[in-house]
Amino acid sequence: MVDGFLSFLPQRSDTDIHYDSIHFSRLAVREAGHFWFEARNQLIVWAMRRHFPKTGCFLEVGCGTGFVLSRLQREFPKCEFWGSEIQAEGLKFAAERVTRSRLIQMDAHRMPFMEEFDAIGAFDVLEHIEDDCWILKEIYRSIRPTGGLLLTVPQHPFLFSRADEIAGHVRRYRARDLRRKVEDVGFRVILMASFITLPFPLMLLRRLGGKVNPSYDIYDEIQVGWLTNSILRIILRLEIASIQAGFRLPFGGSLLLVAEK
Questions:
Q1: Are strands 6-8 and 254-260 parallel, antiparallel or unpaired?
Q2: Considering the entire predicted model, what is its pTM?
Q3: CATH no. for residue 249?
Q4: For the chain, where are the alpha helices, taking DSSP H only?
Q5: 93: closest CA among 6, 27, 166?
Q6: How many domains does the chain have?
Q7: Per the domain annotation, does 106 fall within a domain?
Q8: Nearest 5 degrees, angle CA 195-CA 24-CA 112?
Q9: Residue 188: inside a domain, yes or no?
Q10: 176-207 burial string, b = 16+ CB within 10 Å, else e?
Q11: Cα(150)–Cα(182) distance, rounded to whole angstroms?
């Protein structure tokens, strides 16, 4: 046990993971109601309901403050949920949000499971890890036959900026590169969809500004005004509705991938 959480981390090896635990406290007070976090949750719930509606056991790798996990457990009351995090600091925040999920401290480089879960999700996690292919192999081994994988990642390497460095990203992804990595470990990709497309020009301007401004703070980008946030929430509802209707947008700040084992 570590800080009250079951631990599968006998030898900590987070040197391959770039994430400062200070982000947990800063994110926890900003996620609820924020246009980006709410839109991502909406898309994840839709993808799971469409592709893996009968999931009985689900693991979120890198559950952070529990914002995604808390939404999933409300939407899928019959599913057993697990959430893992390499840093116990994040699990403390998650424990305040989730009511019936098993929270564990775990290094995803050494997942202690073999065909245990019907589906596994990693939402904006892989970009923090140097050897993302290693993590995908561990996830593949932990999923039951015919089980599923859900991923979200930041997209487009040309957007890499000060904001990514502060967030602990080691990369942003091209869609083809993510597909190749997922397929190389044995998954079959069944859906890829860009999102955060309509606000993309605003994001581009902010990120270009971050490349030349050494005092740039990613939380300036997250902390938007009430009116701006409300407008962007409406815009992203329309965007996600188009994805749900079958339209595939050609670009976007983020990327959703769904795959089967």
A1: unpaired
A2: 0.92
A3: 3.40.50.150
A4: 22-28, 35-51, 67-75, 88-97, 132-142, 162-167, 175-184, 200-212, 218-222, 226-244
A5: 27
A6: 1
A7: yes
A8: 85
A9: yes
A10: eebbebbeebebebeebbbbbbebbeebeebb
A11: 11
CB 182 within 8 A of CB 259: yes
Domain-located, residue 1: no
Among candidate residues 162, 169, 136, 160, the one with its CA nearest the CA of residue 259: 136
Q: Has residue 220 been placed in a domain?
A: yes
Closest CA relative to residue 196, chosen from 251, 157, 124: 251
Backbone angles phi, psi at 23, to 5 degrees: -65, -30
In single-letter form, the type of residue at position 230 comes to: S
Q: How far, in Å, CA of 99 to CA of 117, rounded?
A: 20
Supply the angle between the helices 88-97 and 67-75 in degrees, to the nearest 10.
40
Domain that holds residue 174: 6-260
pLDDT tens string 115-164: 999 999 999 999 999 999 999 999 999 999 999 999 999 999 999 988 88
